[in-house]
Design goal:
Blueprint (H helix, E strand, L loop, with lengths): L2 H11 L15 H11 L13 H9 L13 H13 L5 H15 L9 H30 L8 H71 L1
Helix pairs in contact: 1-6, 6-7
Length: 226
């Protein structure tokens, strides 16, 4: 098994979509799925789509993705879909929503005066690009370490056991990072809860005030009628 070639091919296929490649004009659903297929390689060689119409519709239903305008998806929709595509492999729907809600509420459709969603995407993409060599180095280090395992085992079984060792090392690396991501998302969710409770309390107080004012207005009207 040529692990070096597998790694080289894998890293070569991982290239984030540039914002310059995303059309500035709104796209219909078929155009969106075609664009994603063209720019994001599937993880296998069959005809599986990167994102299907059903998946995109479900993201909108679950409030992960803002609803399209007149059945058309903007450049910002595409950026959100790119985030979702990568997140869905390591996060639950609820966790993705926790992470993306602040972005959607503050930056989608140019709501913020300071940053655009495109600015945020470009900054994150640049950070990821600088990390790619380090990711490659870490994987190569694991591979080299696995090749020293089971030194006293007969050659017929040695290759498989060393491959198993590499798989276990990579799996634990993914597991540890996934656990860290979940912990960070939980912290984000916990920090947002007081704000949500405060909003609910304000809404409750508002309704209470409106009810009181309505009652006072009714009593005044009845008094004036007398």
């Amino acid at each position: 098994m040529d692990i070096d070639k597998l790694l080289q091919d894998l890293l070569a296929s991982y290239k984030l979509i540039s914002t310059g490649d995303i059309p500035n004009i709104p796209l219909y659903m078929d155009q969106v799925t075609t664009f994603m297929d063209r720019h994001m390689s599937p993880r296998n060689n069959n005809d599986e789509h990167v994102l299907t119409k059903t998946m995109i519709n479900n993201y909108a239903k679950n409030d992960l993705l803002p609803a399209p305008e007149k059945k058309k998806y903007s450049k910002e929709h595409i950026i959100m879909l790119i985030f979702i595509y990568y997140f869905k492999n390591v996060m639950s729907i609820n966790d993705i929503k926790t992470v993306l809600d602040p972005i959607s509420l503050e930056y989608f459709n140019g709501i913020s005066d300071s940053l655009t969603l495109e600015d945020i995407y470009e900054e994150i993409a640049a950070s990821l690009h600088t990390q790619m060599p380090k990711i490659k180095e870490d994987i190569i280090a694991m591979k080299e370490h696995s090749e020293t395992a089971f030194a006293d085992t007969e050659s017929g079984r040695q290759e498989f056991l060393r491959t198993l060792t590499l798989i276990c090392m990579l799996s634990f690396d993914v597991y540890a990072k996934k656990q860290l991501i979940e912990s960070i998302v939980n912290e984000i969710s916990a920090a947002a809860e007081p704000s949500e409770e405060s909003d609910k309390a304000k809404e409750k107080e508002k309704k209470k005030t409106e009810k009181k004012e309505g009652k006072e207005h009714k009593e005044k009207k009845e008094k004036d009628a007398d």
